[in-house]
Specification:
single chain; about 325 residues; mainly alpha
Length: about 325
């Protein structure tokens, strides 16, 4: 069970406070202050891990975020001289902060050196403020950058995860791939990216909770999930397929909404085709993670883990198959 120390609780509160300040401010300066408060609260949380690589990851994260914040400040004098260049500089700084390709180089190494709860925070909560800023900057000047970054993130996230055997790096490339879909959702409307981000947060949380409870950091460790925990394996299987967007699981619903927006708005079919192709690649390495644990088992492995799974872990199965019950709920309501 995850326990937080008093200073971790304090920094978690200030981290959330920084996000609320950033997304609710009407001034760019106050917004920048919210981002800095969020950054300076997350650094001690990263450094608090007992992992010896956590300090290195915290330093990498600080340097990258400081570079993004410096770029935001550098764009302020440009806004009076060349407004379009200032707008592009701000958007590129935000892409760097969320780890979208081609500015993704820092994201997998940082993810590899931190614990699973910190990884979940980095994949979800830390992206709220920069993405809300992106949604306010949408214009014709920014659209080429969004399209290029979305296509690059889709390809990097899909191809980068194929040759990985470390689960945290696989989840980091998965997060980069989902950023491609989030950028496309941001280009349409604010409601769409909020729905996609909420679904992604729920589904990725169900995956991370299972991996964290079993301390799984390598694909080989999936093999020691013994034969007596079939329900846990099934939960992980459904959670990963949902993260890949396989119908009729929960992760498919927001992707279907994005595809509908592409079709209704007559946007680039090439852009949509690349997103769908990358989704198939992510599904491939998700299946590789789960099928190995289903297929291989030895008597020695069966005796390694003998425990009862917490109920909240098994409830992740219900969360991911919840779309199957939507028609029944509509019948009951109406």
């Amino acid at each position: 069970m995850l326990t937080l120390k008093p200073y971790q609780i304090m920094f978690s509160i200030t981290l959330l406070l920084g996000i609320f300040i950033a997304i609710s401010s009407s001034s760019w300066f106050i917004l920048w202050m919210g981002l800095e408060l969020n950054l300076m609260s997350f650094i001690p949380i990263l450094s608090s891990s007992k992992n010896r690589y956590s300090a290195e990851s915290a330093l990498k994260y600080f340097l990258i975020q400081a570079l993004g914040s410096a770029s935001l400040l550098a764009a302020s004098p440009l806004s009076t001289i060349i407004p379009s260049l200032a707008l592009m500089t701000i958007f590129l700084a935000l892409l760097l902060k969320v780890g979208a390709a081609p500015l993704h180089f820092w994201f997998p190494p940082v993810m590899q050196g931190i614990s699973w709860p910190q990884s979940l925070t980095l994949m979800t909560i830390q992206k709220i403020a920069p993405m809300s800023m992106m949604s306010m900057l949408i214009s014709k000047t920014i659209m080429p950058i969004i399209i290029f970054s979305s296509i690059t993130s889709a390809l990097v996230g899909g191809l980068g995860g194929l040759n990985q055997t470390l689960t945290r790096k696989i989840m980091s490339y998965s997060s980069i791939n989902h950023m491609a879909w989030l950028l496309s959702a941001i280009s349409f409307n604010e409601r769409l990216w909020l729905i996609y981000f909420s679904s992604y947060t729920i589904v990725s949380s169900s995956v991370v909770f299972i991996l964290h409870s079993n301390q799984i950091f390598h694909l080989n460790q999936l093999l020691i999930m013994n034969i007596s925990s079939k329900s846990l394996k099934l939960s992980l299987f459904l959670a990963l397929l949902s993260l890949g967007g396989l119908p009729p699981l929960l992760g498919f619903i927001p992707k279907m909404m994005v595809i509908q927006e592409f079709i209704f708005s007559c946007s680039s079919l090439l852009w949509l085709s690349i997103l769908l192709f990358s989704a198939l690649l992510t599904l491939f390495f998700y299946l590789r993670m789960t099928l190995s644990s289903f297929s291989f088992s030895t008597p020695k492995m069966k005796m390694t883990l003998m425990f009862k799974e917490p109920r909240f872990l098994l409830s992740s199965s219900f969360i991911n198959i919840s779309p199957l019950f939507y028609p029944i709920m509509l019948i009951i309501i109406y």
